[in-house]
Amino acid sequence: MGKQNDGIRKLASKLNPWMLKIEILAILFIALGLGLKEMEFEMANIILVISFQALAIAYFISAFWVGETIAENAFMQFIIRISGIGFSILSIGLLFSVQHYPGADLEVMIGTFTTVILIPVLIYGKNSLQEFNIILNQKLIRACIFGIIGTLMMLNSNGVIAF
User: Fold this and answer.
1) Burial class of residue 139, CB neighbours in 10 A (0-12, 13-18, 19+)
2) How far is residue 103 CA from its own chain's centroid?
3) For labelling, which of 45, 92, 125, 157 has a CA lying 20 to 30 Å from the CA of 134?
């Protein structure tokens, strides 16, 4: 089983230094797509689909990143896997929600709950594992942002707020 994951781990190691740039670029294109969709531009949906999918794929691949110091810490490997997969599910759920696809509510709910549950775990890890503070801070910021976005999308789908 270890050999099967070697390819994705190598890809994740190459992707990890670029992750912040990929996130910023994807978020800019998502904002552009949402603005164009509001103006009823025909290509807005394509921009949104590509942006959300790129973000989801990047998060999923990043779930398999194992740095040199992280390889020895099972807790950090767990955090990286759960956060990567949870953020990926939430990204796809947000895409489904914006595009009004069926199953959006369930995916947003699963991704949001994963992210919200991850926040206290990250805070605990940050206090007990000082050597991983940089990684845990990045994950905590992402979890808070995704938790807020996911909660807003869940409230929007329930009719509590309107976008």
Assistant:
1) buried
2) 18
3) 92
